[in-house]
């Protein structure tokens, strides 16, 4: 995309995919198909499950960007920026999954990717969710249903084995119906409130989260045993009513020694009152707990600002955290944001040492 095209995109909120971009997505789809065929008879269950996740992400990304491709029915059309970014986020996960699937197929236990694979980052609009994006999400749910429809029919014949997948599907298709009703009204020209746009977007996202799990669960039913019915991360320490829930033990000890307990506790209470815990953060906590238990990372200090959470260093890399591949020796942290702002993942070769902890009054 040229410089002037980028300016137009930033003003209009629409993105015109270049032929090179679209060709790259097509090649990725061909690569996914090649690995699917290659591993069709692979006895390694994890390898087959990983490739199912990769195929699902590719199917969803293609559905989102359908209008960007020219066809007999229409010319290539611009898509909302958020639609392009969401598709990019999904496509971006695929290469690592293909590598992991082939590695696992070659040597059992060699893949460090942990199952089940989740949708990951959700791209949200700063204003009203574009109708084109909602339509793309609806296409994605259609394509996912078509992809595993036959396998779901077979699963119903073995209901005891696939109970979790069937229950998750029944919930997901109900949520999908709610989103369809709203989007149908919008596409039919009826005015609906902004909250209805947001609700439809949320219902589709939850549906796709579940469909991605179902695609993997139909390959390996045991994966859904520990997944919550909604397809999201189950209760974690982030949901506890404890303001010190993610604060590093090192920070707690130093705060107590320095006589700053009351000040820190006031800051923590204010932080968690404003902060909205997300499923991405639950995933981060769950992943780091697993990596610690396996000795692949260790605590390497703590973040200088509230909530003074642990910084981790990779000891046996590379490790995979929130779609990032982090090599041995590098550090990472989840920054929970300030004043209710969204959090973010940060990783570098190293972090500089702060002179002191930062409190709200500083």
Keywords:
globular; alpha+beta; two-stranded antiparallel sheet; four-stranded antiparallel sheet; disordered N terminus; 9% strand; 362 residues
Summed up, what is this model?
The chain has 362 residues and is an alpha+beta fold. It has helices spanning 3-12, 19-38, 45-64, 81-106, 131-156, 163-187, 194-217, 249-257, 261-274, 279-293; strands at residues 14-15, 79-80, 297-302, 310-314, 319-321, 324-326, 331-335, 344-348.
Give a structural overview.
It is a single chain. With 362 residues, this protein is α+β, with helices and mostly antiparallel strands. It folds into two domains: 222 residues, no CATH class; 112 residues, no CATH class. The chain has ten helices and eight strands. Strands 3-4-7-8 form a four-stranded antiparallel sheet. The N terminus is likely disordered.
Shape: globular
User: What characterizes the major β-sheet?
Assistant: 4 strands, antiparallel
The span between the termini is: 44 Å
Write down the overall mean pLDDT.
Answer: 85
Radius of gyration: 22 Å
Strand content bin? 5-15%
Q: Uncertain spans, ≥5 residues at pLDDT below 50?
A: 1-13, 228-232
Structural class: alpha+beta
Question: Share of helix among residues?
Answer: 40-55%
Order of helices and strands: HEHHEHHHHHHHEEEEEE
Biggest β-sheet: strands ordered side by side in the sheet: 3-4-7-8
Helical run tally: 10
Number of strands: 8
Number of domains: 2
């Amino acid at each position: 995309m040229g410089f002037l095209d980028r300016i137009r995109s930033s003003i209009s909120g629409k993105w015109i995919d270049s032929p090179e971009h679209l060709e790259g997505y097509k090649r990725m789809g061909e690569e996914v198909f090649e690995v699917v065929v290659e591993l069709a008879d692979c006895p390694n269950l994890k390898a087959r499950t990983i490739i199912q996740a990769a195929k699902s992400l590719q199917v969803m990304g293609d559905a989102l960007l359908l209008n960007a491709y020219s066809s007999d029915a229409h010319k290539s059309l611009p898509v909302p920026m958020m639609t392009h970014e969401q598709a990019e986020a999904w496509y971006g996960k695929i290469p690592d999954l293909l590598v992991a699937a082939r590695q696992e197929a070659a040597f059992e236990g060699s893949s460090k990717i942990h199952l089940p694979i989740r949708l990951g980052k959700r791209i949200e609009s700063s204003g009203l969710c574009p109708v084109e994006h909602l339509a793309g999400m609806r296409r994605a749910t259609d394509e996912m249903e078509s992809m595993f429809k036959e396998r779901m029919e077979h699963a119903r014949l073995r209901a005891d084995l696939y109970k979790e997948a069937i229950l998750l599907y029944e919930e997901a298709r109900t949520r999908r119906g709610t989103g369809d009703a709203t989007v149908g009204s919008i596409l039919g020209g009826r005015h609906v409130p902004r909250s209805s746009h947001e609700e439809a977007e949320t219902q589709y996202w939850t549906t796709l989260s579940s469909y991605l799990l179902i695609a993997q669960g139909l390959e390996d039913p045991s994966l859904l045993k520990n997944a919550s019915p909604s397809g999201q991360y189950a209760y974690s320490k982030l949901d506890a009513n404890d303001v010190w829930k993610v604060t590093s033990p090192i920070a707690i000890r130093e705060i107590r020694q320095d006589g700053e307990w009351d000040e820190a506790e006031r800051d923590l209470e204010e932080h968690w009152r404003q902060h909205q815990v997300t499923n991405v953060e639950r995933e981060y906590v769950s992943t780091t707990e697993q990596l610690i238990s396996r000795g692949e990372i260790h605590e390497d200090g703590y973040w200088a600002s509230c909530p003074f959470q642990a910084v981790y260093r990779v000891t046996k890399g590379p490790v995979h955290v929130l779609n990032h591949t982090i090599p041995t020796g590098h550090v990472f942290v989840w920054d929970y944001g300030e004043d209710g702002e969204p959090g973010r993942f940060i990783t570098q070769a190293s972090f500089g040492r702060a002179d002191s902890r930062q409190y709200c009054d500083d």
